[in-house]
């Protein structure tokens, strides 16, 4: 039977001991009902995993002793950054979860002219935004645990297009998925550049897409407009499809 797997940041691992805090304490003690002597697997996000034997619970934490450790490589050689136009309701939860499973390294929530979600958050004086970012980070951790990743994607703060473009990303390929692009396909771009691509950033608009003016802004900063074909995908589908294609063409789906 496989052992249960938990994420613990390096700051909570030292001198042969592991300290587990937060919601995992409840999960270990009340849901799984693991007691002293039980073995679990811990990963710290750096590629290292640990075999940990649990000790007794102390207040709001569970401590364990490291019995073994090893390096494990499940990360793709392709570094992907998803810049996702903020969708309505809780669609971002699913995007974050599935993108993590596929292998994304960073997710940047993007506020655009058609981002309905962002206009509501402005009225919340920032508190709700912080809560959402924390929620998405926790979803990343859970998805990384489930998919046996050894790294947890970074969730960046919400930015506007102007804020995002003010800090250029150093990547091999910059893609803008735009439903109004009729000439250049993602397939064509990857066939021309795929073998030399080690890092990619992908821009996905919200419901309703990006405006022509917004698309032009990205294009002026070196982003290649591409199409997936004649069918228009929902915002919560488009980014995941592109990430999967990128892993197949440039990452480790085609090993």
TrEMBL record:
Keyword Transferase among record annotations: yes
MF annotations from Gene Ontology: rRNA (uridine-N3-)-methyltransferase activity
Domain (Ribosomal RNA small subunit methyltransferase E PUA-like) ranges: 20-62
Catalytic activity: uridine(1498) in 16S rRNA + S-adenosyl-L-methionine = N(3)-methyluridine(1498) in 16S rRNA + S-adenosyl-L-homocysteine + H(+)
GO CC annotation: cytoplasm
BP terms from Gene Ontology: rRNA base methylation
EC annotation from Swiss-Prot or TrEMBL: 2.1.1.193
Subcellular location: Cytoplasm
Domain Ribosomal RNA small subunit methyltransferase E methyltransferase: 75-247
SUPFAM superfamilies reported for this sequence: alpha/beta knot (SSF75217), PUA domain-like (SSF88697)
Annotated transmembrane regions: none
Pfam families tied to this protein: Methyltrans_RNA, PUA_4
Enzyme class: transferase
Function of the protein: Specifically methylates the N3 position of the uracil ring of uridine 1498 (m3U1498) in 16S rRNA. Acts on the fully assembled 30S ribosomal subunit.
Family per record: Belongs to the RNA methyltransferase RsmE family.
UniProt-recorded name of the protein: Ribosomal RNA small subunit methyltransferase E
Higher taxonomy: Bacteria, Candidatus Moduliflexota, Candidatus Vecturitrichia, Candidatus Vecturitrichales, Candidatus Vecturitrichaceae
């Amino acid at each position: 039977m496989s052992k249960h797997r938990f994420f613990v940041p390096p700051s909570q691992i030292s001198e042969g001991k592991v300290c587990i805090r937060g919601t995992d304490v409840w999960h270990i003690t009340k849901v799984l009902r693991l007691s002293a002597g039980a073995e679990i697997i811990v990963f710290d996000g750096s590629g290292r995993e640990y075999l940990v034997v649990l000790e007794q619970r102390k207040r709001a934490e569970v401590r364990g002793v490291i019995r073994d450790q090893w390096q494990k490589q499940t990360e793709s050689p392709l570094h992907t950054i998803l810049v996702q136009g903020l969708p309505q309701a809780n669609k971002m939860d699913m995007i974050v979860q599935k993108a993590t499973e596929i292998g994304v390294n960073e997710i940047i929530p993007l506020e655009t002219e058609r981002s309905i979600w962002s206009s509501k958050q402005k009225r919340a004086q920032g508190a709700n935004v912080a809560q959402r970012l924390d929620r998405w980070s926790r979803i990343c951790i859970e998805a990384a645990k489930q998919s046996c990743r050894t790294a947890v994607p970074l969730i960046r703060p919400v930015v506007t297009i102007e804020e995002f473009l003010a800090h250029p990303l150093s990547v091999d390929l910059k893609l803008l998925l735009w439903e109004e692009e009729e000439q250049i396909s993602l397939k064509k771009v990857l066939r021309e550049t795929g073998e030399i691509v080690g890092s990619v950033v992908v821009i996905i608009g919200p419901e309703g897409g990006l405006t022509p003016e917004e698309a032009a802004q990205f294009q002026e900063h070196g982003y290649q407009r591409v199409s997936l074909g004649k069918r228009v995908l929902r915002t919560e589908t488009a980014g995941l499809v592109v990430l999967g294609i990128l892993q197949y063409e440039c990452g480790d789906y085609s090993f």
